[in-house]
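Write out the bound-state structure for alpha-D-galactopyranose.
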Amino acid sequence: MKEINFIGFENVVNIESPGRINIIGEHTDYNNGFVLPTAIDKKIRFKFKKNDTVNHCNVYSKNFEAGFAINLTHIEKSKNQWENYILGVLFEIQKLTKKVQGFDCVLESDIPIGSGISSSAALECGIALGLNELFELELSKKTIVELSQRAEHHFVGTKCGIMDQFASVMSVKGHVILLDCQSLEYEYVPIKIEPYKILLLNSNVTHSLASSEYNTRRKECETGVAIIKQKYSGVNSLRDVSELMLKEFKTVMPPKVFNRCTYVIEEKIRVLEAVKALKNDQLSVLGNLMYETHNGLKNLYEVSCNELDFLVNFSKKYKEVIGARMMGGGFGGCTINIIHSEKIEEFVLDVSQAYFNKFNKKLTTFEAMPSEGTIKSTTKYYI
Ligand code: GLA
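---
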């Protein structure tokens, strides 16, 4: 498919949908715990217009220089995974409303794919918000978040939690979101860390098993909950389990399951401690918690990899890096580092060289700015 022409069209809907970082609280969302994410200044930009057909839609990605057509009466999974994020959202929207008709959409992204900053949620939520605007569907932000998550479960096959979609849609500039993934209650916490900055180191490792391993971790947690529930019937998720309770099951649970549960329960506590530290300007406390999280993800949850471990270890050489850890689902992607702004240049040079020497791979680095969630603008627009 050729790129879609928007020149001269009025009433084009423009959407910007961001990727996210997560300060702390990894693999806690689907365990009904807490997370601390925010959208960042890396985005997918979309343009939408109606094409005056009833059922025919065209979507074109500038990055892939490829597009595909969709017939709204037959929305089925595609062999091309990136298309499934879009098809899944359309499928979920069709279940809620029949108001969507033919449309054209072009998108362009500066979010590195597979880097753990959730280009997938940005894609899902951007499509959902764009259609919401174009066809005046009147879906709430919460509905957009939830339908995007379902799209990922059913069309992509990753049984993700709600963090990424929530952060992509709900974020507010200069803040992180303390989200309770059980009640979906949330609080915006200002992130005032100057002269420190958030630096991401992208290992450029993507693991083909990431999605299946992710689903396995989720199942292992569910197995743990089922075992605990035999004695404590009121327990519905690891949110309801204390460290003390879990210890009772050490000899009963398969060791891996016990380790997974231990990590999640410890991480649940760390998020709340991190928020306290952030509110009290105790950045070194926050940094130590991040290092602890990395240890847990590496040793107990086993979702790290050599490259990420190397990057986190290397950061410890610099006292100006007050905390670092792998971020996101794992098996590759980025580490998140809190670093004094004056040291960024030197650190980036040093770690990039060391990384290349060790793995013969290029490191990509960028600063992440806590930014606003998915934004719409329905102004007349000519390109
Ligand atoms: C992925 C998922 C999220 C979350 C993180 C790990 O990004 O999409 O729901 O589980 O992994 O914290």
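---
The longest strand covers residues 37-50.
Residues 255-279 form the longest helix (25 residues).
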